User: Fold this.
Amino acid sequence: MENITQAIQGIPLNHYILLSSIIFAIGVMGVLIRRNAIVIFMSVELMLNAVNLLLTAFSAYRGDAAGQVFVFFIMALAAAEVAVGLAIIVMVYRNTNSADINVLNKLKW
Assistant:
């Protein structure tokens, strides 16, 4: 465990912040630009992973395990989101024969 902490602390914290910001921005752009539901869910996962990376880096730099505990709960939340989201996508695809979110307007009353 000490080796991993020393390896993480060997890289400047600014690099983690920059990488995490880039990954988060890619996820935001994917949510805003793309219309495919599967791509949108993957973009949300990218944003969650960017936050996980940053929480882990801050946790290692401070020597506190609280950030890593939050990462565990975020990963559990992401797994539940994927399960529910994919079930919704499958049901929408069965009803509309498309994974495009613009088609969802047809499901309104």
About this structure: The first helix runs from residue 2 to 10.
